[in-house]
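Hi there,

I know you've been waiting on this one. I reran it after we fixed the sequence typo, so this is the corrected version. Both the input and the resulting structure follow.
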Amino acid sequence: MELRQIQYFMAVAVHQNFTRAAEQVHVSQPSLSVQVAGLERELGTRLFDRLGRTVVLTQAGELFRPHAERILREVDQATQAVQELTGSQRGRLVIGTLSTVNSYLIPPLVSRFKRQFPFVHLQVHAQPSSDIVNGLFANRLDMGICLLPLDDPRLTVIPLFEERLALVAPPHMAIGRPRTRMQDLTQLPLVLMPVDYCLRKMVEAECAKVGVLPNVVLEMSSPEGILQAVAEGTGATILPELYVRARLSGTALQLIELYDPTPRHVVGLAYLSKRHRSQAAESFAQLCRDTMKELQAHPPRARTTPLRAR
């Protein structure tokens, strides 16, 4: 089995098309097909079902894929470790981050990182916290920005900051004050994340403390989509305050502080304890801490164009 065969296999698995996969790895389509066929002969089974121009993984292909991903990541890490030894700052860094944190922390952080490591290929994937943890264990991610605590001895975690949640309501909703108790949410129609998202579980847990059953009228996985639904008047929502402040003009949606109790959670960095961390990864972690401190001291300004009902 050759490394290029695994690379070609992964390209086809991602693109589900031999022609596009060949373009990605810069070989001709016949050459790629020959290598994939050779891999299938070596494994003694088909890895893809050919459905016209589209190909899909067989059961054997699905089983082989996570192993192929880990092999390529290990090779990438080994290459990066040797390059660091010889003074070359190249390679790849793959980060998973919460969707809300991705919007206000990642842009200034990435700008600083690329100035220090212009030749490191940085990938940032916005994901639910549970997917970030799974990505770390599957060796798909080098580092994750996710919700804490994480009680697993295989992971090293570094708390970054405490994220406070706030109520966001459409202009016409009669809240009448800048602060409201959690128990006052009883009658409000809410637009929240799906039930399997950590943020949703946290909101429900905080509501349960005061005997409130959230009146959920709509579920959406996109924070941006949730805010737009609120602007349309569908209902109110509960989202991280720092995320919301970057998206309000102060004249459209209402941002209301929640208390008694104030819902909040800890966001931190996580990575596999026994995995080699590159110089780029170490610098990314430090830049993450520094950038977050500055954002807390000087919160992002609201957008000049508010979200409004259409």
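Quick highlight: The longest helix spans residues 59-85.

Best,
R. S.
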